[in-house]
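Structure first, sequence second, as always.
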């Protein structure tokens, strides 16, 4: 794995996955425009390192997770399913049948021991300590023309529950108000918001630390939909295969990743709000301005030569699609512990995570698809799923054209639609009320007589395995000499 962000950027360059931009590019709209254009190119384009952001001497990195290859490189695997397999092994208890099985289990025992983070006396993130530092010295982006200001878009935000001391880490956008204050856009369903509610109830100031640019596994972990009460540092350590090193902050009682590039220390006061937004969001629309807590900076620490890590969200696909795809693959084994009948699930890029979820199941009894819908609407952040499409196990949910075909041929709208009301994502803009509205489930499975379907269900049209093999051989020969739109076969 990687010792820090710099190590990862070096690996990306070696793999020809990094583009260095040496000409001056402005953090005011231009860096975001370049990042947006690149992220929508085939394969997600390369990671970007803007070496000379106009007016600043701190380079800006963006789109580092913006392809499936880079997402796998960031987490040290050839395929995200490798991580899912490790989680499956970890969460499936089995008794060893002999000494050989015991020996095979020893590495997993060692891994569990090394998940606990350790606190060091110092770290690279504190090479420079600026108690009077200003956010104006950082190349923070304004991404879209109607944004309320400059935004820190990829922060690693650390808080502790004032009553239990339980740590939470999340990624919440932060609008810069001036050199020493920002907004803290933690939505009401997030862990940071819960810590703030507790602090307000107790009438206490809530300390906050914001790390920018930790190693890639830590950056990903801050975005992951961890179950409440589980420490994101444990997930990061599991992904890194080694514990996370932390250092104590200078002015607040919190620990931050020792390998971060920049750390902002500070607090939010109970009862203090300020208008934040609009912000060009991952929905592809501007989220509306609203009142949010205010983060006050007490100290800025950093490396001597830091890199500012950022991300740009907007009309999909963007870098966040690959982060979301990783979560879908990584957390699937845990979801199967509750819903073992799930075969696969997929979150299409255009569905922006919560608007459209495609699920295939091993259908076992009448109404099974509706059970899955209702289970998702009661399961962690899956509760935000606006439209859930459930298909049979033989449908490839990653083939969106196949799913559309199956929905069109398997679903009767008068029979197979389930509509409910419940909590919605704070960014949902179509519902009548904020964070509360309607959701729809579509049962696109084959219908059974026990579900009231008495007609014969038609068989899918398929060729034989032998004919399919011959067709593949013949097409391989044809395609070597044929160019689409060129008038047929070339000589």
């Amino acid at each position: 794995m990687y010792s820090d962000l710099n190590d990862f950027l070096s690996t990306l360059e070696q793999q020809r996955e990094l583009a260095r931009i040496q000409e001056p590019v402005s953090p005011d709209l231009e860096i975001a425009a370049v990042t947006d254009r690149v992220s929508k190119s085939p394969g997600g384009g390369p990671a970007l390192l803007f070496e000379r952001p106009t007016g600043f001497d701190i380079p800006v990195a963006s789109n580092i997770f913006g392809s499936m290859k880079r997402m796998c490189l960031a987490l040290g695997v050839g395929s995200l399913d490798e991580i899912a397999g490790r989680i499956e092994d970890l969460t499936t208890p089995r008794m060893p049948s002999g000494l050989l099985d015991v020996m095979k289990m020893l590495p997993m025992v060692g891994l569990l021991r090394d998940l606990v983070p350790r606190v060091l006396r110092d770290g690279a993130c504190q090479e420079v300590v600026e108690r009077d530092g200003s956010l104006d010295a950082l190349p923070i982006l304004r991404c879209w023309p109607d944004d309320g200001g400059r935004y820190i878009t990829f922060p690693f935000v650390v808080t502790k529950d004032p009553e239990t001391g339980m740590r939470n880490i999340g990624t919440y956008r932060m609008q810069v108000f001036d050199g020493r204050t920002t907004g803290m856009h933690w939505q009401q369903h997030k862990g940071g918001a819960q810590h703030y509610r507790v602090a307000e109830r107790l009438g206490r100031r809530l300390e906050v630390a914001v790390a920018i640019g930790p190693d890639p596994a830590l950056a990903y972990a801050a975005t992951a939909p961890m179950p409440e009460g589980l420490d994101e540092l444990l997930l990061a350590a599991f992904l890194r295969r080694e514990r996370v090193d932390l250092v104590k902050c200078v002015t607040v009682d919190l620990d931050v990743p020792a390998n971060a590039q920049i750390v902002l220390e500070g607090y939010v006061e109970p009862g203090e709000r300020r208008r934040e937004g609009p912000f060009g969001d991952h929905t592809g629309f501007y989220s509306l301005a609203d009142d949010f807590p205010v983060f006050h900076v007490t100290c800025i620490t950093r490396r001597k030569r830091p890199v500012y890590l950022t991300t740009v969200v907007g009309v999909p696909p963007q870098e966040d699609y690959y982060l979301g795809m990783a979560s879908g693959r990584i957390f699937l084994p845990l979801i199967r512990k509750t819903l073992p009948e799930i075969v696969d699930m997929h979150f299409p890029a255009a569905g922006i995570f919560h608007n459209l979820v495609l699920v295939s199941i091993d259908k076992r009894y009448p109404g099974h698809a509706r059970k899955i819908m209702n289970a998702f609407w009661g399961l962690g952040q899956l509760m935000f799923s606006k439209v859930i499409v459930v298909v049979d196990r033989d449908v490839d949910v990653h083939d969106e054209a196949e799913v559309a075909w199956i929905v069109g041929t398997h679903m009767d709208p008068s029979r197979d639609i389930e509509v409910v009301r419940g909590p919605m994502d704070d960014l949902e803009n179509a519902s009548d009320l904020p964070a509360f509205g309607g959701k729809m489930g579509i049962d696109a499975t084959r219908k059974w007589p026990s579900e009231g379907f008495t007609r014969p269900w038609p068989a899918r049209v398929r060729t034989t395995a032998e004919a399919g093999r011959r067709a593949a051989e013949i097409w391989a020969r044809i395609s070597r000499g044929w160019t689409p739109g060129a008038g047929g076969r070339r000589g």
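Margin note: The chain has two domains: 5-309, 339-451.
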